[in-house]
Write a structure and sequence with these properties.
single chain; SH3 type barrels; 5-stranded antiparallel beta sheet; 25% helix
Amino acid sequence: MDTLVGSLIISRSGHDKNHIYVVMEVESGFVYVVDGRLKTIDKPKKKNIKHIQVVNNKPEDIMEKIDNNSLRNEDIKRCIKLFKQEHRCEAYI
């Protein structure tokens, strides 16, 4: 399950349905996700793993910054914005 860390996901259930996040941590049955805006690195959202869909497995720039422990909220916002532009995604940020 730790293979999800750094992946872009879309929430498929709850009040944040269709919201794009980056997975920061994985626990048994749950993931902690951030979007860099409302859900920051300091306060990630706990999300049931059944309620997410992986849409892009590990963008290189995000993984590099996670490995170096230098990931910032601005990096996450930029990654999500680029993904939405590339895929003409109508999901929320």
